[in-house]
Amino acid sequence: MMEKNYQFDLIEEKWQKHWEENNIFKSCENADLPKYYTLEMFPYPSGNLHMGHVRNYAIGDVVARFKKMRGFNILHPMGFDSFGLPAENAAIKHGVPPAEWTYANIENMKKQLKTMGISYDWDREVATCKPDYYKFTQWMFLKLYENDLAYKKSAAVNWCPSCQTVLANEQVVDGACERCETVVEKKKLSQWFFKITDYAQRLLDNLEVLPGWPEKVKTMQRNWIGRSEGCEFDLAIEGREEKMTVFTTRPDTVFGVTYMVLSPEHPLVDVISAGTEHEAAVKEFVHRMQFISDVTRTSTDTEKEGVFTGAYAINPMNNEKIPIWIANYVLMDYGTGAIMAVPAHDERDFDFARKYNIPIRVVIKGEDSPAEGDQMKEAYTGPGKMVNSGDYDGLAYEDGKKKITAYMESIGIGKGTINFRLRDWLISRQRYWGAPIPIIYCDDCGPLPVPEKDLPVLLPENVAFKPSGESPLTYVQSFYETVCPCCGKPARRETDTMDTFVCSSWYFARYCDPHNTELPFAKDKTDYWMAVDQYIGGVEHAILHLMYARFFTMFLHDIKMLSVEEPFTNLLTQGMVLKDGSKMSKTKGNVVSPEEIIKTYGADTARLFILFAAPPERDLEWSDQGVEGSYRFLNRVWRIVTECMEMIQDVNLPETFAELDPEARELRYRTHAAIKKVTEDIEERFNFNTAISAIMELSNSINSYRNQEELDLPVLKEAIEAMLLLLSPFSPHITEELWQYCGHQDSVYSQSWPKWDESALVKDEVEIALQVLGKVRDRVMVPSEISNEELEKIALANERVQEFSQGKQVVKLIVVPGKLVNVVVK
RNA sequence: GCCAGAGUGUCGGAAUUGGCAGACGAGCGCGACUCAAAAUCGUGUGCCGUGAGGCGUGUGGGUUCGAGUCCCACCUCUGGCACCA
Fold this sequence. Notes:
seven-stranded mixed sheet, RNA-binding, Isoleucyl-tRNA Synthetase, domain 2, 32 strands, alpha+beta, 826 residues, 5 domains, Rossmann fold
């Protein structure tokens, strides 16, 4: 029975149930149809959806439903990134086991997600904390290990004292923990790494073949990978056996070296300063540097300082004696931890040399650059010709780079190298709630991978949480006690777990074959579905998740598990949801709860508003009044359809619409203009806000048309049905209900997307603006087929035009057909 | 400091290829309905001016018949990078 009023709560519940019971959104491979894989970044199950989620999933659902109606075979799954620290914190705080807390949150969030009415195939749901999933996260580790891409090493790593675990470089932002903003410390520990640096060049190069990614994200990844090309070479140290090795991108400036710098942590520092009069000062400096955090030390604001070590290196190009210093601005973990300093052509070296009165020698002369170091106000880093460089004088600096590198190579002291800023990915975490690293330590056989058949290495339950620097699993004897898979003697399991970013680096492939118990996924399934055609999520993952996932995909491609090399063909990074100009947060007290909004206005209104308020990439300002507006619009749609229903229900649409009266023609024009506009806005630009405004315009047109006395019912029906179909990806429940009222049996979701009729877009008459000197003075209606000559005549004869060109001479006439005539006078 | 992106009514935002700035929505004003209110419907709404008209897309200049859009300089905001040799 038809309800008189728009009762969103009844309608939404009814259709959600209907969709679920009829498996409307279930997807399977179908070779006859082109596939389309839409994916939104899966959430961490914190327990409640926030507006950012709603925005993310509303965008994804428009894409999925639109593509479905456009004839694609859709994969649109959802799941949970369910390992991670909050579960452990909750366990400590509330005494609930992490697993219990997590599963309860998943249930609640799933319930909330279902009230949004998104077209997910829930049969494909994954949760990374379930053994059937993390079994294959461990499988990934084993494959990386087999291929020498997982290794353990002792290194100074980032330690978050609050989270009580180590972090990857990517998870340290401005020297602080990405999660809790605590300043991280350096700790020397033995940890597991993935050799992502082996893929540095490919991660960089492939960005070129990702035209569907925002330039912003690609730039961030390029910066992070930080490739630089240069030359590494050895220098003898006066009176010693040892050599020092430096990396430089400017071998062309090697004749301008006036001092060398070692990082304070460099192993040679102690050796070369020992026994010199400078030893005490060096020791003091090194000691002092230990207590300065990396953030401070690597900030551009920090003043450069250093001390002379007492030792000298020999410049291999001219045998000059060069003093070796140590300084705060040279870092141990980039390049070789040592540099050649050329103050004339490097800003940092210049500042340092000025401070300590070290000579500045010009070796590159640009067009207007100073020739003498003393005259310089700043370092000259531009192009130029080599000077003061012996046989190399007169060479262009680029040629100099090549020639000097080649020379060093020929005498066996150096070689051309490429340095990356990217570090290997530290994946061990001293935490309980993660996938255990599948490694066994045997006193006799060493560290060994857990045999594939023994996966998964199950996480034990009932674990005590003691705040210490060690994994809680180190206290669980039943977990760590095992036998060596090689010799059968008692052995010990690795007690660290994996970074949760490992779990999310391959989930998109698991969705293609989520119930496979033998393999993470079967190749024929991923061959059909991968890559993800449209990936949608927050820009905060620009480096972290998006780079790790690319790395995994390349690796899986290399071991022939995946055909694709890149996981995400198109990427949309959505903006944040703001309230009163800032991000919604509990501390600011400006949080709007999606649950409340859906309860008060319904999911259709919530979705519509969030898509209407701003284009998807931009930040969105939440507005309660804006929500009211969207709600009013849906009510208007409801009234239009229910009030016209009886008239149009039994009307058949003709093949062609001939002989229409002007009003009906106008409505048809507007209907088809709306179809065109909405289609192009979604398809080409993801401009959902303007697509919605076009639907609103159509509804306004229908509304005024239906108040007339004589109605052309087929035209009215066509307009109303087009409006419902166009609106259905945005607000699926109300359109489903009204679609049925119009006499249809099938779901709107399974309808074909409407096509516009070009002939309906042809107008008899168009409005032309008449300008004098670029200012609009009048507007006239003219036949659309009018010739330029005719238009010119009309313009010149126009009263208003004459008024404004009186006493002046017409110099020129500009005609833009269908738009305007501009009369140029003098 | 460097590199992106942005700056348009009271507000969110539109203008797709250099061609009528302000679509759509919100807010506000007026009117209808109502005992009244809400809802709804209709209508108006960039600024100045009684009016004719003038002005108007961060600022200043330029190109053009015509500039929110192109060029130059500058200001502000947002994001990213920032001793990476």
